# Entry
Amino acid sequence: MFKRKSFSFLTSLVIAGLVATGCGQAQPATTTPSSTPVAAVSLPAEDPAKAIKGAVETYFNDIGSNVKDSYKIAEKDLKDALDKTPDKYVILDVRRADAYAQGHIKGAINVPYGPDIAKNIDSIRAIAKDKTLIVACYTGQTAGQTDSLLNVAGIKTLSLNSGMGGSSVGLDTRGWLGMKFPTVTEPTAMPTAPAVPSKSKAIDAAVQKYFNEVPADSYKIELPLMKDALAKEADKYYIVDVRKAEDFAKGHIKGAVNIPYGPDIAKNLDSIKEKSKGKTVVVYCYTGQTAGQTDSLLNIYGIPTKSLNFGFGMDGFNKGWSSDKSYEVVK
# Structure
């Protein structure tokens, strides 16, 4: 009897063990989830002033090192590039629609200088992905403004040297038209392309504000107006000559300070802002193009600035300040 009871008891234990083991296999293992939810981390808000200053400094510091061409492309170089590898470039014509309709570079997309650029900045960024954007205007000066602003917004951009040029703007042998390069009248619509993330919402906002608020003078001052203003109220202007030091030494506008285009501007941003308080900065270069770049970047940094239309002038370019002997030049 005892043996039978012992056997029954042992059998019950074995069955219970098997049942317990089987239940254990049927239960899901108690483990830490492989993708534990991460608590949301609030990143510090972007400091607009810091972001803009950093981008402007980088733009000017890269000149002469990472950037050899002053963010411009010569007319002949662009023609050769478009003949050989047109798919590597996107052409943005920022002239008015009527000028574009009369003739433009084949494939160029018309986005007129001003609010239209602000409105289309995301589309421009998208179509320019992995390409170089070329901006063309009339003489290269407003393209210079556009060029620099799109670069700081993360879009690789160059401006066409002397713009479309031609006799209509007094550049008979300069620019695309002055060089007698081919044009078409058939428009090219803005293509659709996958969105490309912005590198800085603060910079985008500053760039869009600049274009949305373009004044009647396009952030430029005409030569006769500058001459008259300096004769009557020179103390209201802070003149910055961004040409090379040796050219400044040969002759410059009276009262101008020389801060050569490139890293020197990055180094002197705060000095320009401090010394120009209560004044309008007027920047000039040789033809107005690199001054246009400087003009727009100083403006988004918070320094009210205009560029001198057609600049100081140079050999082979008779549209600037020095081409008229009635305009004062000092050494």
In short: The first helix runs from residue 2 to 26. Strands lie at 72-73, 89-93, 109-110, 132-136, 157-160, 220-221, 237-241, 257-258, 280-284, 305-308. The two ends are 129 Å apart (CA to CA). The domain at 48-212 is CATH 3.40.250.10 (Oxidized Rhodanese; domain 1).
